[in-house]
Design brief:
Blueprint: H1 2-24, H2 31-37, H3 41-46, H4 49-56, E1 63-67, H5 73-82, E2 87-92, H6 95-105, E3 111-116, E4 129-135, H7 146-156, E5 157-168, H8 177-186, E6 189-197, E7 200-207, E8 226-229, H9 232-238, E9 242-245
Parallel strand pairs: 1-2, 1-4, 2-3, 4-5
Antiparallel strand pairs: 5-7, 6-7, 8-9
Helix pairs in contact: 4-5
Bound molecules: S-adenosylmethionine.
Length: 246
């Protein structure tokens, strides 16, 4: 009995440390963990791609991007849904993740492109995508660059295009709904739908103004050059403020 309690306490402690680290010093998930966590029966059962695709209302023939594709689990599901007449564009900062996504997408008829790069400088042309998804990835970007990343999404979306952000609670980089809503507002997205299921939620949002990059210069955030976003996690811990520059 004591042994079991000890093991449980050790697991809880490791979870707490990893989570603290993820919230306060975010960094991309290492590739060697992705094979373990991003495609397994538990994920398919609890955090399946259908949740994302349905919220994004991905339809046949559409052009859809995934920022932070990991090993391509969600990108592959998008490719299946958009079919031969559609296309998938995936991006990840990890070369190995890019190769893994590319390999997966080869199995589908949809046109595809997979690029290595950073979420704050997307390689896709302005207005070229119907929808973009970001699944369990926004929190891996350092807090002060998240609005910039969202503004990049705004740039690559066609007018009226949509962004879907999905967060999983067990993820050490999990962003609460409150915090995510503030980032989206700061990047001039309007949340039009949300969906929630045990351990996960998602927002569908559309641009309603000018992002940081609009016009190629200036913050587009009321002319101040920066915007203060209160991060609930930090507020609780440090009564701190984040200044989000664009
Ligand atoms: C937790 S994984 C999720 C992968 C995928 N969205 C999924 O749900 O299966 C997050 C991915 O985002 C990528 N990532 C993190 N920060 C990034 C950044 N600034 N630019 C591009 N990719 C990034 C990581 O390399 C990692 O592959």
């Amino acid at each position: 009995m004591l042994f079991v309690l000890g093991v449980l306490a050790a697991v809880a402690l490791v979870f707490f440390i990893v989570r603290w680290q993820g919230q306060h010093h975010p960094r991309p998930m290492p590739y060697w963990l992705e094979g373990l966590f991003l495609d397994n029966p538990l994920r398919r059962w609890m955090f399946g791609s259908r949740f994302v695709l349905d919220l994004a209302e991905v339809a046949e023939g559409e052009r859809v991007g995934e920022v932070g594709s990991g090993i391509g689990y969600v990108s592959a599901a998008i490719a299946e849904r958009v079919g031969a007449g559609g296309s998938v564009q995936a991006l990840d900062q990890s070369a190995r993740a890019v190769r893994a996504t590319d390999r997966r997408l080869l199995a589908y008829k949809a046109a595809h492109g997979v690029a290595r790069g950073d979420a704050t400088a997307l390689p896709w042309p302005s207005g070229s995508l119907d929808a973009v998804v970001m699944v369990a990835m926004l929190g891996e970007i350092p807090a002060e660059r998240r609005v910039l990343a969202l503004s990049e999404v705004q740039r690559v979306l066609r007018p009226g295009g949509r962004l879907v952000v999905v967060e999983y609670w067990p993820d050490p980089h999990f962003l609460s709904q409150e915090v995510l809503a503030r980032y989206l507002t700061a990047a001039r997205f309007r949340v039009e739908a949300s969906r929630q299921r045990f351990g996960q939620y998602g927002f569908r949002a559309r641009p309603h103004g000018h992002g940081c990059r609009e016009g190629g210069s200036g913050p587009g955030l009321g002319g101040s050059g920066s915007l203060t976003v209160y991060d609930r996690v930090r507020q609780l811990d440090h009564a701190d403020r984040l200044t989000v520059g664009c």
